[in-house]
Amino acid sequence: MLDKSIKELSQGLKNGDFSSVELTQTYLDRIAKLDARFNSYISVSSDAALTAAKEADTRIAAGDASIWTGIPYAHKDVFCTEGLRTTCGSKMLENFVPPYSATVTSQFDRAGAICLGKTNMDEFAMGSSNENSFFGKVVNPWSSSNDLVPGGSSGGSAAAVAARLAPVATGTDTGGSIRQPASFCGITGLKPTYGRVSRFGMIAYASSLDQGGPMARTAEDAALMLQVMAGHDPKDSTSIKHDVPDYSAGLNNSLQGLKIGLPKEFFNEHLDSSIQAVMQTAMKELEKLGATFKEVSLPNIGLGIPAYYVIAPAECSANLSRFDGVRYGHRCEQPEDLMDLYKRSRSEGFGNEVQRRILIGAYALSAGYYDAYYRKAMQVRRLIKNDYVAAFEDVDVILSPTTPSTAFGIGAKGDDPVKMYLEDIYTITANLAGLPGISVPAGIIDGLPIGLQLTGNYFDEARILNVAHQYQSQTDWHLKAPGNID
Amino acid sequence: MSFSSDDIKNVAHLARLHVSDENADKLGADITNILTLVDQLQAVDTQGVEPMAHPMDAVQILRADDVTETNQRDKYQACAPETEEGLYLVPRVIE
Q1: 3-state SS class at A137
Q2: Is A192 within 8 Å of A178 (Cβ atoms)?
Q3: 8 A C-beta contact, residue A208 and residue B58
Q4: Active site residue: A45, A90, A106, A153, which one?
């Protein structure tokens, strides 16, 4: 049951092979038995899940079911769930029970899916290792000695899907936070075009970069998830009015004539040789499917990390100013005055990395520095976007590694934030440009999975899903599971 | 650009964060490193480049000025640390 696709699970429910209550209980039992090791969930919603599963079984019996009716899934704990604690991985929201639900949450509810619980994450989605969670580190299910990170910030979702503690999970991606953990945990993760998925009720980190998306074992499952999540939302003024295609319809399209771009700035002497070999093997598979390759140039791509570490902290410092110890969230004991209330509530509630990014952002936006930092970074952002626009005149998708290495050790990056930031070198520019990208399992290096990344043109999610699905129809990397997850 | 512990404390005040003396030095060093990374941007010629705020250069969508929300004050205040008679409580600000 644990290796079935969403389509197969849905068929099994309709055939009466198993009930939604049985399916849901299977996952709840696994979480209870195994998650002490992985720490992939912050909250498990057993009672509500089983109640919803019972209702789903009634609807399935009555013939009133969608493909998602009765299918369990998990939410990254960044999506507000009315009545269910939503922490964003922070002490600031340790006891926060939202009075409303995120649009994405409501969409899965309406589709009939069963929320198992909320997954662990780097605090406020800031991090690349899931070591920044107030609720503890997450262990990568592929690590034999429980000593590797799952990636971040959607590390809990990636670990839960890889360890078969949820069939699929939601994630969010601001600089690589879906794709990087997908690569480290051997699963498929898609960051949609900016504005494709509503951000309403998704706790904001950097509003012009954040985007929710699916984390699944296969591109086929990811397509079904995106179908639920995509669409314009009047409650999110940055969501885009753009037709939502049938993401599953084109999965089996032929790749004959597909032009794949290889950025010369990524395929150079800095690329790890074992990852280079994985990319070469994957390219041969894609070539057999009919794709051709062409070198492209993205000359400003190296400026992605510097631009990001101005824009994201600037937006974070503005977004996180809402946590004031007054309306919701952590409040310090015995404040002397209002200033003391603000300062102590925030310093006690936020962890180190969050405070660092707030400080950088506040500095970059402060009088006299705005032009030198924020405005400059926004200009460089356009140069990066223009590079992609030019490249997509020649090619249909762009292929690159997702990550510069396989999963690294817990504590390996020490406490030097810049070392951690460089992890996102291949993923961060898709966020700056607003483009969709998917990470697909493409190999195993020394026992650990590694992904390849396909970046698509604006709103071309269907195409990168098609390429990913065709690749997965010829390879079995996405079917490999960690050795010891029972 | 090197960040002293005084610089840190000034920015921390702007951001309404309390930074202890012990933390100020370490934070100053971290932020100096991050700003060194970011300073690569200064070498780029961006003359005449329009800053990009939204990938699709979308503009704010306006809606009709209709009342769409009902009053749910009690529900929204249920998660507040301290309220009284529908008001959020903070330390006294007017003597």
Answers
A1: coil
A2: no
A3: no
A4: A153
What residues in B contact A372, CB-CB < 8 Å?
A: 42
Rounded to whole angstroms, how far apart are CA atoms A391 and A366? 36
Residue type, A67: I
10 Å CB burial of residue A470 (0-12, 13-18, 19+) is buried
Domain ranges of chain A: 6-255+401-411+436-479
Instruction: Label residues A260-277 b or e (16+ Cβ within 10 Å = b).
Output: bbbbebbbeeeeeeebee
pLDDT at position B95 = 74
Per DSSP bridges, beta strands A114-119 and A72-76 are parallel
Chain A 327-346, CB below 8 Å of chain B: which residues?
Answer: 327-329, 331, 335-344, 346
Inter-chain CB proximity A418 and B52 less than 8 Å: no
pLDDT digit string (tens) for A423-433? 899 999 999 99
Of A20, A76, A101, A154, catalytic: A76
Query: What distance in Å separates the CA atoms of residue A55 and residue A125, rounded to the nearest whole number?
Result: 33
Q: Which of A10, A20, A45, A177 is catalytic?
A: A177
Quote ipTM for the complex: 0.95
CB atoms closer than 10 angstroms to residue A337: 11
Locus of tokens 């409650």: A235
Question: Measured between CB atoms, does B55 come within 8 Å of chain A?
Answer: yes
- Tokens for A256? 């004959």
Q: Which of A430, A420, A422, A429 is nearest to A127 (CA)?
A: A420
Averaged over successive runs of 10 residues, the pLDDT of chain B (95 residues) comes to 83 95 89 93 96 84 88 95 96 85
Structural domains in chain B? 5-43 (1.10.20)
Give the pLDDT confidence of A186-225 residue by residue, as tens digits: 999 999 999 999 999 999 999 999 999 999 999 999 999 9
User: What's domain A6-255+401-411+436-479's architecture?
Assistant: Alpha-Beta Complex (3.90)
- Cα separation of A120 and A149, whole Å? 12
